[in-house]
Amino acid sequence: MDEPLDFTPGRTEDLPRILEIIRQAQRQMQRAGSRQWQDGYPSARDIMADLAAERGWTLRLRELAVAYAAVAFDGEP
Question: 0.90 exceeded by the pTM?
């Protein structure tokens, strides 16, 4: 791929796209037999808390968020 990817802080207006990415990951994990993230976590409220705490990040391709991560160094399990 020749197009650059940008790793940038997430924005509140990214929430719908981030939730779409999370739901895709949940479905993939369920198909793989994983029980992780099958109980409603992370919710929109969790994502908004990450964004407010400046620990939510997006990987962007042409300004479209294509991946999301919460990067925390506060001992969260």
Answer: no
Residue with tokens 């997430």: 10
What's the per-residue H, E or C state across the chain? Answer: CCCCEEEEECCHHHHHHHHHHHHHHHHHHHHCCCCCCCCCCCCHHHHHHHHHCCCEEEEEECCEEEEEEECCCCCCC
Q: What are phi and psi of 14, to 5 degrees?
A: -80, -10
Q: Give dist(CA 33, CA 36) in Å, integer.
A: 9
**pLDDT in 10s for each residue of the chain, 77 residues:** 588 999 999 999 999 999 999 999 999 999 999 988 888 899 999 999 999 999 999 999 999 999 999 998 887 66
